[in-house]
Amino acid sequence: MGKILPDREPSVERRYFYKLMSHFVGVLMGFAVMVFVPRSLGPVNFGYFEFVTDNFTTILTTLSLSFPSAYFYWISRKGHKENCDVATGVNILWHVGVIIFFAVFLGASVAGGFHSYIWPKIPVWVLWSGLFFAGFSFLFQFLNYIADGRALTVDLERFRMAQNILRASGLAILFFIGFLTLRTYFLLQTSVLAMIVLGLGVQLARKKALNPMSFGLWRHRWRDIAAYLTFTKDYVKPLLWLYLFNVGYSLYDRWFLQVIGGPEEQGFYGIAFKFGALAFIFTSAMTPILTREFAHAYEEGDKERLRGLFNRIQVFLFIATVCGVYISVQSGNIVRLVAGKEFLPAVVPISIMALYPIHQTFGQLSAALLLSTGQTRLFGIIGILVMVLGVPLTYFLIAPRRFPLPGMEMGAMGLAIKMIVVQIIGTNLQLYFNARYLGFSFAKWLWFQARVIAIVYTIAGLSKMTERLGDVHWNDHIAGMWLPKNAALHTVLPKMVFFGMTYFLLVAILITVYPSIAGISCDEIKRYFIGPATGRIARSLRRRKGR
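The chain above was modelled as a monomer; its predicted structure follows.
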């Protein structure tokens, strides 16, 4: 019980296809959500939601002490050949315990009245709503680890697509009936998460990836439990100092922004982070799959496969750059189209945060290799160094000029700049050690990053000139037949369309004439794009000839 045979595992390509399709639906639904939510809630209420959910999710992740990550690498390496019921049972108990512990702490802080110091300017009901949302998100992430680690990505992504569609549909209904408030927003988000957690749990049980035996640890031999706990201890111990630092560091940025700028600045930063995350969605699809393959290759001692997998990061870096630069350059038009005038101060933070996914992609995949190959101590040291740099940088960029130690008073924009700077430094430190481990040239990887970003930004600059083609006086009668009566749609959308057509056409031409910039070869273009396309054309011609 509890094992999935290797020959039943879907291929990496099929798993990535479902990940990509699910994340593509997530992009569309996420964009739809961003159309409804900021306009309805406004910067302050949107800031409440963003601050509390981000804060509570970070706290639960920190309190988990990397147990979930240890579990993921355990089942990724051993799930295809060993029983994982004990490992799953330990982690179920751990996750539930973490949620209960934090709920008790939250209750004590509210009863004692010191919650206002930890979460300043936040109503109590928002804190409790945030706990339910973060708790179900925490459990859903654990089920993600089970599904991805056991190569059940296809089932997982079907549920993720259902989650995104249900959430967007519910928000659209609430918006159009005029009932979308912060309370209903919390209620809908949490209800959908709860339904998906229950449904995915049942599906994993049907596939024997979540065995009822996991819920009764007392039925297992103590030596089996002790063996898994020893593995977890060895995995977590090098990361302990990192997580102790992370308790304060992960909460400090948003807390300091909340104290200095209030919920409104949280709203501006929150929407900037959301749009940055849209650019990351396509590349994040591959992260758990590639992580699982890293762990599997390391377990089998296949260093050549590790090199091949790591080289594939170039593809995802290119995709993240293309998506991020588009959002960065079009940030002003996006805000006017989606969020409205109230969020115009978020334009610059969005243009900065849209670049965050470029190195976030690199960072997640590079970190995955460090952790998969057992270099957790090195990963922890790099993380602590980055945090030591990040704390004073946050203060300097956000603190008011009137403080005894004056800062730049940049609010959401300052936090966005800090995130980019720290991400670039941390990612390239990880890259340096991974390049040494795999025998790559670190300088070549640095040059690849600089080259990709510079070339894609040049293409965006050239495409920007075509925006003026959309700067026309549309006939209200004609436009009204296919666009709602919204001034932003009539003036901004045509500009974005003309820019996008030129931009993505030039990107396609670039890949065709210079495929290595996207981390692929001419042979791969022929095999995956030209070959299938010509095959479809030939089949179509044969069918027509047969008629």
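The two ends are 54 Å apart (CA to CA).
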